[in-house]
Amino acid sequence: MKLQAHFIADVAQFDSEGLVTVIRGGINQATAEAFPSMIKFSTLTRLWLTPEEASGLVMTRTRLTLDGAEIAQSSRPLNVNKTNPEYIFVNLINNFQLVIPSPCLLRIETSVIAPGLESALPLLEFVVKQAPGVRCRL
Q1: Are 59 and 75 within 8 A, CB to CB?
Q2: What Cα–Cα distance (Å) separates residue 14 from each residue in 18, 45, 58?
Q3: Residue 18 carries which DSSP code?
């Protein structure tokens, strides 16, 4: 397996032709004016697989922690593009919408499970901060 991309974005989505659109890719923080606050973001991952790794079910396991406490975990099968055996790849987009109770550090741990492979991807961290107050003088 070769990791080609793995990052957080404001928005990531596939279009009808399978192309990926990313807005503000590579972000690692957000600000909120008040808490609790709703935040939305996406993660994008692109993997190149060997024919052996792509020969069976390929899955990801994602775990979210908020200041060290687990808030969610999920496993998901992936649709592997095997149309060209020289270029076997997987695109994965996860869209998140979370209520954040206070300023925090959000960690996203993802691992890939395939025949003969279980590999942790690089840890993604996302800081949610209180927006600085604005004072106006009249």
Answers
A1: yes
A2: 5, 12, 20
A3: S
Q: Report which of 93, 76, 79 is spatially closest to residue 41, judged by C-alpha positions.
A: 93
Cβ partners under 8 Å of residue 10, min gap 6:
23, 24, 25, 27, 40, 41, 42
In 3-state terms, what secondary structure has residue 55?
A: helix
Q: The pTM is what? A: 0.86
Alpha carbon distance 26, 125 (integer Å): 11
Q: What is the DSSP letter of 122?
A: P
For the chain, the 3-state helix, strand and coil shares in percent, each to the nearest 5, are: 0, 65, 35
Please report, in tens digits, the pLDDT of each residue of the chain (138 residues total). 999 999 999 998 887 676 788 889 999 999 888 889 999 999 999 999 988 888 889 999 999 999 999 999 999 998 887 777 777 888 899 999 999 999 999 999 999 999 888 999 999 999 999 888 744 444
Residue type, 11: V
